[in-house]
Amino acid sequence: MILKNIRIPFVIIATTIALCSCVPVKEYQKSRLNDGEMELSSRQVQKTEQNFQSYREGASGANGGKTGGGCGCN
Amino acid sequence: MKKICLVVVGIYIHLFAAFSQTTDSANYKPRKLKIDEINFVSSYYHQDGNNSAVTGGIGIESLHDYANILEVKLSKYDKYKYKHEWDGTIGIDYYTSASSDNIDPHTVSSPSHEDVRFYPSLTHTITNEKKDFSVGLTASYSIESDYQSRGIAANFTKTSHDKSREFSAKAQAYFDEVRIILPVELRNATTGGLYGAPNEHDYPWLHRNSYSSSFTLSQIVNQRFQLMLLFDLVYQEGFLSLPFHRIYFKDSSETTEHLPSTRFKIPIGLRANYFLGDRFIIRAYYRYYQDDWGLVAHTADIETPIKITPFFSISPFYRFYTQKGIRYFAPYREHVESDEYYSSNYDLSSFNSHFFGVGFRTMPPKGVFGIPEITMLELRYGHYITTNTLYADVITLNVRFK
Questions:
Q1: Considering chain B, what is the average pLDDT of its residues?
Q2: Which H or E run contains B63?
Q3: Which one of A22, A37, A70 has the shortest CB-CB distance to B313?
């Protein structure tokens, strides 16, 4: 049932990635991609925010962090 | 002539020596353990609202939390040229909660009204840089007066040879225990916490386990654009309610929250970062979430760092969240005793939230305030509001040393 309902967003995300025409980028061309602000993972400074959001909201996960444990709040 | 020859020979020897030095340093892998970076994160969080679950969905939700995290990252190469990295973290939170104080309002000293949470963790990652993959193990622990958690995780990461694509898989398990502290009026000789009873300070513990698989796929699209797809499967079992969340039924009788003993969650996320021109970066994030308690949520987040100089940026951000609540939720005095499950926890109700603020980040090449050991300083403030009266403020400071 759950898998049936998540089909739409999953298809959107998969299509977005599939439609992206990726071009090869050499190491010396990655100056912008290597900028600290371009990091794809969450930053240290966001840890507390993500913690309280996972307590105050019913949804959690898919942010590269913890998926359970550590507090009785959620 | 002799002089010119000597100069030419001298230059040649110098160039040769310089070239040799470059080649050596390129192949050199430090075998000694070195500190890559140390992060210190300190934050203050405050919230308030009028829907405390401790008092059945009504009452204040005031909470103050002071969190401090120290993270040390170390690395070294072994004799096989595998890179070993260790990431050790120690976190200490101190919090006061007015709503938890209402577990036992007569004493104003209920176990959760003021608490300390201590949570260390250690990750060891081994990377084979020739074959572009790494494996890692994490062990974590967390303890506070009414909750403790033991976690273990294993992860595998494979990077494409041109470093444009990366796939990562992680399996995590948390073995938690919840101390069953009931509201004072519901305690009896067998529950613990009854004044004067032999087991007054002896509360039972129940288990709550979480198992998850997390997958991420990141892809460089071009010189300015990269994407990451995140997908988790999470299964929880055990005591998933909280024992001090009161429920008031329509007929005024009272009990505590009762939720199913299993929960299956599926969150899917997409991150997209784009470098616009020379000064603007767009960091976007979307997440879809669904679980088998009927909760469906969407999260959209956008942050636009503006590089005032190459080493200083200002980042305004906005996050929108909306959720359709679980099917077992009902407000104060709207549940009936014939319900199979019940909760008046507004965190699980239907609502929207907005979170917005700004961050400042500086990474000067000569160090912050001219101190070379401080390589980065970041300060971030955010204000959070929900449509169910809750509001919060959070301010965080991250200082990085090297």
A1: 89
A2: strand B63-77
A3: A37
